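#structure-requests
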Amino acid sequence: LHARYVLNLLHETRKHLKQLPNISHVSTCYSEEVTVCGDLHGQLDDLFLIFYKNGLPSPSKSYVFNGDFVDRGKQSLEILIILFTFLLIYPKEVHLNRGNHEDHMVNLRYGFCAGLGAMSRVHGKKILRMFHNVF
């Protein structure tokens, strides 16, 4: 995606997240299930496998992602774009909890900052600032 679209997605995600309470309550009934995932750490293949086995988020398929979306793996940006897009499309079915890797200092140490800088030299710093603002 062009940087302008990434920044727009981040802006809309931030606006949405600011409206939410600090604690999300997710309930199920007998006909529904919730898939709980954690620690993707930039491994896009893991996210694709989860969606392959459990289905994509939809009004009938809820997900809770328990943080640590980024760092270590090489596809942190792609994971965040996918998760933020699903969050905006299905705000009642997709829930994102911040992990300890959604932190600027941890991102510096484990690679998210360097990965973004290498990916988008022109807009990398602006995109990174916006990600940290969303986190």
